[in-house]
Amino acid sequence: MSKLVIVGTVAFDAIETPFGKTDKILGGAATYIGLSAANFDVDAAAVSVVGGDFPQEYLDLLKDRNINIEGVEIVKDGKTFFWSGKYHNDMNSRDTLATELNVLADFNPIVPDNYKDSDVVMLGNLHPIVQIGVLDQMTKKSKLVVLDTMNFWMDTALDQLHEVIKRVDVITINDEEARQLTGEYSLVVAARKIHEMGPKYVVIKKGEHGALLFHDDNVFYAPALPLEEVFDPTGAGDTFAGGFA
User: Fold this and answer.
1) Residue of 60, 90, 232, 238 marked catalytic
2) Which of 69, 131, 192, 217 is deepest in the core (most CB within 10 A)?
3) pLDDT tens-digit map of 25-34
4) Rounded Cα gap, residues 238 and 235, in angstroms
5) What is the pLDDT of residues 206-230, one digit of tens each?
6) Is this prediction's pTM over 0.90?
7) Catalytic residue flag (residue 106)
């Protein structure tokens, strides 16, 4: 069985869409990635941090899906990372209402010893320095290293982001982020430029319009499954990445 180590947030989300509103519920990149990957024959471990306010029932949920949580640090006197957002009517765009880093601000991920030789490393959306720190802990070259990132890190930590991009096999970003990272409007040209940065595979997500996979001169397009109703798209990209990894 392949080993997969997942590094990312385990968090609280408060979400508002045209169809409803929630208070604090379980969220975070590592959560979505892990629950998605758990549908496959893989030995998965989550590496993250939560506060003393994080319910045991949520940790039990991850364990019940056979996700190893040895690498999830619990800071007893701290608060869990919190994000709140409001989606527009098209469900493709949203406004961030609140971001509280809390214990994530001082997060120093520790990969469990049993997973330092993992076949696959999934780097969820975090500061590039944290992502590099995870790669430096691996004791052997993984068969596949997948990176997820976002435009915030392109704005605030571009040099460090370029450093981690050099070291991964796959990068998954959306079309807006691909254009910002490369300065190219054409996604084909953008993917080519990202290839030159290091990754063998470039996945560009287009929301309800599916995703594009670029490898050398090959392009594969996967349409999204049409749905009559979408209530909450939060975590869709992370879930996609978990299945891919």
Assistant:
1) 238
2) 131
3) 999 999 999 9
4) 5
5) 988 999 999 999 999 999 888 888 8
6) yes
7) no
